[in-house]
């Protein structure tokens, strides 16, 4: 992929500022070398501009997959032996899943953000990139064994769900949005597989399947950096661990341990 320090002539001034905030992200990346490769993965957060909005490429997973069938996902997967970096993992998986070119002058890596831990205890590193020629999206093709459909969503809508009102959203009460609320549904729970950790599940109505769980969390993280402000809603339940450092403090042998009282 092309160097991340790119000209942003195709972006509006506001969206150039978003990309520059992502480029300037200077969070210290955690050392993941101590984790087994089988526990490491990466996803691609591919952003482009359309009608003045930054949009993100998403997929609905095949309904025949063993894990998370029919759910919204970012292109991505587990690290392979041949991958030299998380960036390479993200692009390889995007190529396999939706046919995104492995090398293109129109795709530019912007940032590698803080990882998150999935329900299955996979440490997922988000790789943010920009697409400067949106017509390339017309050339993408879903790998049917993995992907049911390809769609996009305004990134800003995960901070302010009302932004999505102008989208061709799925009908309320259908399989693709089985909730009574119009745009954004939440529920608070504890996650037994992650040591009964408190967690607020976010779900966003889209033009395809709901954007929820880890995918929603990663997009919220990206949008907060890009737009420089917090969501219009309460992101976390009281007592929820919020950073990879906090959560990984309880990881031993791939398991999350409950925090001991001080």
Description:
With 262 residues, the chain is an alpha+beta fold. It has one domain (13-256): Nucleoside Triphosphate Pyrophosphohydrolase (Alpha-Beta Complex), CATH 3.90.79.10. The protein has 4 helices and 13 strands. The strands form 3 sheets. Strands 1, 2, 3, 4, 5, 6, 7 and 8 form an 8-stranded mixed β-sheet that branches. A 3-stranded antiparallel β-sheet has the order 9-10-11. Strand 9 (184-191) and strand 10 (197-204) form a beta hairpin. Helix 1 packs across helix 3. The protein is globular, with a radius of gyration of 18 Å. Mean pLDDT is 90; it is low at 1-5 and 253-262.
> Quaternary arrangement of the chains shown?
single chain
Give the end-to-end Cα distance, rounded to a whole number of Å: 47 Å
Radius of gyration: 18 Å
Inertia-based shape: globular
Please give a handful of descriptors for the protein shown:
262 residues, alpha+beta, Nucleoside Triphosphate Pyrophosphohydrolase, eight-stranded mixed sheet, three-stranded antiparallel sheet, 13 strands, 27% strand, globular
Summarize the SSE layout with pairings.
Layout: H1 13-23, E1 40-50, E2 53-61, E3 72-73, E4 76-78, H2 86-98, E5 107-112, E6 116-117, E7 123-131, E8 147-154, E9 184-191, E10 197-204, E11 211-212, H3 213-227, H4 244-248, E12 251-252, E13 255-256
Parallel strand pairs: 1-7
Antiparallel strand pairs: 1-2, 1-4, 2-3, 2-8, 5-7, 6-7, 9-10, 10-11, 12-13
Helix pairs in contact: 1-3
């Amino acid at each position: 992929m092309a160097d991340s320090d790119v000209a942003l002539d195709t972006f509006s001034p506001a969206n150039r500022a978003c990309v520059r905030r992502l480029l300037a992200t200077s969070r210290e990346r955690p050392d993941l070398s101590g984790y087994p490769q089988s526990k490491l993965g990466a996803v691609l957060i591919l952003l482009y501009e359309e009608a003045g909005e930054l949009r993100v490429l998403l997929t609905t997973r095949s309904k025949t997959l063993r894990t998370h069938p029919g759910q919204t996902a970012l292109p991505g997967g587990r690290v392979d032996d041949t991958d030299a970096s998380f960036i390479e993992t993200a692009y390889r998986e995007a190529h396999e899943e939706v046919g995104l070119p492995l090398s293109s002058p129109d795709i530019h890596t912007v940032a590698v953000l803080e990882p998150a831990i999935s329900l299955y205890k996979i440490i997922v590193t988000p790789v943010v990139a920009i697409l400067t020629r949106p017509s390339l999206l017309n050339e993408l093709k879903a790998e049917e064994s993995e992907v049911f459909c390809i769609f996009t969503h305004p990134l800003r809508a995960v901070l302010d769900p009302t932004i999505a009102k102008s989208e061709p959203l799925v009908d309320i009460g259908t399989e693709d949005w089985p909730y009574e609320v119009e745009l954004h549904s939440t529920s608070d729970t504890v996650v037994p597989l992650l040591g009964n950790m408190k967690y607020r599940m976010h779900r966003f109505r889209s033009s395809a399947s709901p954007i929820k769980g880890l995918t929603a969390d990663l997009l919220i993280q990206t949008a907060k950096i890009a737009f420089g402000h917090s969501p219009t809603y309460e992101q976390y339940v009281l007592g929820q661990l919020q950073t990879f450092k906090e959560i990984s403090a309880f990881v031993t042998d791939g398991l999350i341990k409950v925090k001991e009282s001080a």
